[in-house]
Amino acid sequence: MSLKIKRNIPLAPYTTLKIGGIADYFTECKTEEEVIEALLFASEKKMPYYILSGGSNVLVSDAGFRGIIIKIKTLTLRIDGAKVSSEAGVSLPLLAKKTTGHGLSGLEFGIGVPGTVGGAVYGNAGAFGQETKDVVNSVCIARRETDSKIAEFSNEMCEFAYRDSIFKRHKDWIILSAVFTLKKDSKENCEKRMMEMLKNKTTNQPMGELAAGSIFKNPPVTPAWRLIDEAGMRGAYFGNAKVSTQHANYFINTGGATAADFLALIRLIKDKVQEKCGIQLEEEIQFVGF
Ligand SMILES: Cc1cc2nc3c(=O)[nH]c(=O)nc-3n(C[C@H](O)[C@H](O)[C@H](O)COP(=O)(O)OP(=O)(O)OC[C@H]3O[C@@H](n4cnc5c(N)ncnc54)[C@H](O)[C@@H]3O)c2cc1C
Q1: Which residue, among 286, 221, 211, has the nearest Cα to 246 in the 3D structure?
Q2: Can you tell me the distance from the alpha carbon of 190 to that of 213, in angstroms, rounded to the nearest whole number?
Q3: Looking at ligand 1, which residue's alpha carbon is closest to its atom 50?
Q4: Where is the FAD-binding PCMH-type domain (predicted)?
Q5: Pair 90, 199 in one domain
Q6: Could you tell me if residue 215 is inside a domain?
Q7: pLDDT, tens only, 49-108
Q8: N or C, which terminus of the chain has less Cβ within 10 Å?
Q9: Residue 71 to residue 119: CA distance in whole angstroms
Q10: Which residues line ligand 1 (CB under 6 A)?
Q11: What pLDDT, in 10s, does the model give residues 245-287?
């Protein structure tokens, strides 16, 4: 067995919020074979497992995780004409840079999304009118219930919707890789678009803070940040968790915040928005170990 399994690992360093307790077991997988090995280990031990990638869209419980955290670090990337094949652990900003560098359009938005290909497929990440679903051709996954056999999903089978996919309803499936079909354009045009998106993002969102992106999905008519604003909650805080004054749908760990602080702030904001605007906000952030 080439897989290294560690015991009692604090999860906070593996998240952009820098929050979270200890995982009983933890493994980093650098190849697809190691991912399958980790899945088999969890199956044999009848142990719960959770997939962690960039850790940029998760709130990990202060109590940590009872089971094994499988961290995806597979990094193979191939660009063949307009077809891009990427393992799940490849970083989205890197993918944006590589594809625009080849004069390929469709993933420019990834420059401002500090996660991985696996995380982007799972949550159909997007920004500035681009979404992962628009460029995914197929996705390879591993599933415990089929004896860790690998299955290929077409775009349609992924059931993509706004910040949603079939993978959110099957949290035990592991995304191994994805194939994207991009559009050809000049390298200059692609890179210009990407840099404009990055500039917009760094100007309007708290990119240098300890955050996890948008806490809530945007309801159909009004963006979540505006509802939070209308409820008078911009800058509100609980313990060391604070609603960003720059972008009200980002919550910041101002230093030493706990998952309990974040959970309390999320509940407070949901209640206030419901009370003042009559709209029920739905979390985009994923909860681990609660
Ligand atoms: C500063 C900042 C800006 C952001 N901007 C954006 C934005 O513009 N648009 C946007 O959509 N998001 C944005 N986000 C949120 C986040 O970066 C995205 O949701 C990203 O796609 C999450 O990827 P990840 O690899 O970090 O996933 P993680 O946070 O590690 O995991 C998120 C969820 O995906 C699941 N998952 C991850 N990888 C796999 C896999 N291989 N197989 C199965 N399940 C998997 C996890 O189990 C978990 O439930 C931002 C976050 C930050 C901190």
Answers
A1: 211
A2: 24
A3: 213
A4: 18-185
A5: yes
A6: no
A7: 999 999 999 999 999 999 999 999 999 999 999 999 999 999 999 999 999 999 999 999
A8: N
A9: 11
A10: 16, 50-58, 72, 88, 112-116, 118-120, 122-123, 125-127, 167, 174-175, 207, 211-213, 286
A11: 999 999 999 999 999 999 999 999 999 999 999 999 999 999 9
